[in-house]
Model the fold of this input.
Amino acid sequence: MTGQQEIQNFISPERLYAAAAFFSIITLAVVAMIYIRLYIKKKTHFGHARITEQLNEWISEALLEETTVNITMQPWLMQYFAKEVHRRYVTDSLINAKKNLKGAASNSIVDLYLKLGLKKDSLNRMRSLVWHKKARGIYELYMMGQQDMAAEIERHTNSWFEGVRAEAQTATVGFKGFAGLEFLSILTQPLNEWQQLKLLEQLHKLNVEEMPGLPGWLASPNLQVQIFALKIADIYNQFHVHDQVAELLCADNEALRTQAIKTLGRIGNEETAGIMRDQYRQETQGNKKLILRQLGMVGSDLDRNFLMERMNEEDDGLKLEAMRAMAQCDAEGWDELLSLANDNTVLNSISKQVLYELEQ
Amino acid sequence: MPKILLIEDDNLIRKTVELKFKKENLDVVCACDGREGLQKLPLEMPDIVLTDLMLPYASGLEIVSAVKAIEEKDIPVIIFSTMGQEHIVQEAFRLGADDFIAKPFSLTELTIRIKNQLKKTE
Amino acid sequence: MTILTIATTLLTIGIFIYACTLLTSYMVIGIASIGGSREYMYKNEFTDFRLLASSPHAPSVSILAPAYNEGATIIENVRSLLSLYYSNLEVVVINDGSKDDCLQKLIDGYDLEKIDFHVQYKIATKEVRGVYRSRKAVYKRLVVVDKVNGGKADALNVGINVSSNDYIVCIDVDCILEQDSLLKMMKPFLEETGKKVIASGGVVRIANSCEIKDGRLEKIRLPENYWARMQSLEYIRAFIIGRMAWARINGLLLISGAFGAFDKQIAIEAGGYNHKTVGEDMELVVRMRRYMEEQRRPYRVTYIPDPLCWTEAPESTKILGRQRNRWTRGTIETLKMHSPLFLNPRYGVMGMLSYPFWFFFEMLAPLIEFFGMVVFTILSIMGLINWHAFLALLAFIISFGYLFSAFAAYMEVATFNMYRRRTDMMKLLLTALTEPFVFHPFVVWAAIKGYVDIIRKKNSWGEMTRQGFGPTAQKK
Done:
């Protein structure tokens, strides 16, 4: 057989038609799957819709009762609860309600959750090997305040699976407060900014407590733990770690230095402005602007010359930040700057912007 | 019977609060989003408005502005806020909001605050 | 064997290999997209995005919305942007030298006053005539910039210069954004560790025939107009499948100009939008990626399969043709500007996979198809076509196309299902049947015209008249 014949055999019309027929059959199968899926979605949606009004009415009544002891499950509800997907929907509704309500109503929500047997579902999910089910299970148990599961949940705070780890950390802090942050001491997995934000929001609801682990977290080999520790030091005014934070200005990692600068602005003492000025020259443009912003908070008339020198910077952004800082920390210096600005178009333009901002 | 305009997009919360108020002999008109709230406001002329800050179609701040723009009647506005929205709450007060309740809230406390506001306007 | 026989054999083999490579790529892309979408849905199943909306620690965002002659709808468009769920937000509307009353409408509608503002020209742009802010506290998020006309890229660069926040979200001002779109778009920037997320894109869907009121989507409907309906399918294929798959391997080269989020500092360091190309959206992403590769800084361009943005698609062949012409020119210009990336291992996935894919299967595809059609015509006139073989090859390619479209429709249903009515899905699938005979040849023809225009050095956008979103965005 010649080469041409071989090729023609390989891509023979018969083979191509066979492939086309195969594709067509798969296409029909996919179209069937589309319709099945749509049918199921529609059925579920209308099932929810039909029941939601009644369900919300029933749940609301139950929440307003002093106790759930007398709450009975009517036949339509028991039928509804037979399906796991419906029970999950009710769990979600209760969780949502719990986020919004406290006091007696909140207790009723938890009672209802237990009385309806929804905890069993949550436990099954938490003990599943599939990561997203596990994460959901942890989330549900935590949101429903199931403190008896705290120890089991805490074991997952360093899980390899990000979703599981995140929910376990959130739950542990939720259950134990600041003491729940202990996991930071042993955390080897990443702690991304989103999770840090969630944890900060958890802590925001609580009264601040001692954090004996803080110096250790600031020295952690895990970079994100260090950054998170800096944020905590910032938000909770942990002045006693000022010197340790200042040392982090020598770190190689820019993000770490950025957060250290922000934190120093909050927990600054009489030495901080000097430390910031010394750090300025070796910093990136972004961090330079940040330093100038912090000087607005921790600076004084001692920083006047430094801030005046910034008027010679090439980057107008640095001039702007330096002017803002001067306006905030040194009234005399600010007047001097305004006189200087009269003879310089760029400085004049920037000073007008700062004056506008001060009026707002 | 004093009339409350309740603007809250969460169905269950709206239902629960509505039921609670009805049990306290308060007349409740509900809206499930900002636009419905703005539509019902001039029609119902409630004695008090209770609104969430984060709503579909129009924000709680717009609701506050709209309520305070009504010259015929001085209607107090109470806003629901989530933790961390302090700066938005401040904004709401600048626009004229009378009180705020942080979520999660107690139904009992909410009812007491509503009744206190209603007493002030009598 | 005659030369003609050899030539036709080689041509047949060439087309077959090209087709098979393309089909295989689509299959791989299709499968890869499933995992990406599933992972996203599981990860965010019970995420409280509103946490990001109200947290003072959330990243600061500036929406940049260039506006040119948008006087008819600018007030509602801006209003809907101002009511987006996000606390640390600034909305920068850039009036790009509009000839209508766009600026005056904004001034009157939002009680704006011209303020003292020092514009830092971090990226060189046309002159800024003034910066405006509202006297009313409720609109304090709004900044309006009036500038000399310079085109979309220039307007966006002005927005970058004027914005005060760390992240920019570049949009078309007449697009409709879901209320929690920003929350969802910003989350990827916070999730990555070890790599810097420099840009993020989301799904853009077609809003034609949808019910829209006060700048919000009330009811979603499949477009009634054939061309818009066809584009719906196309967008589903491109966004839900194509981009999801590319993003999974960090090979995404394009984020829609209608809705994309960027790290502002990196955008500035890379030089901002290029006003010398009509494909400025793709060109920026490629340049930012190239910049990061050359700096040896680990990075990612992420993508989320959530439908966050709705836009109006062209309903007439005239406007659609102009759009596809511009897209072709934009692709050619971008790939030409960044030709050093081609099969260059220094640029990782982008150089070895993404760029070659775009080069062969996006840029050259219309040329190859057109060439194939011309050769086919000549050979059929000469009576040299083996009709049996030809029809078999055509059936093979068309049936695969149908399979891919059906798969795209399934992915739409299985993920963030917008078209829930069975009749809508039927219409979509039936429309897909016409694609190889109507829509696709038209698009290829428009692309060829794009090639011709590039050769003739035409560099305009062409007039893209839009109907705007009325109560129902459809032609009566």
Notes: The mean pLDDT of chain A is 91.
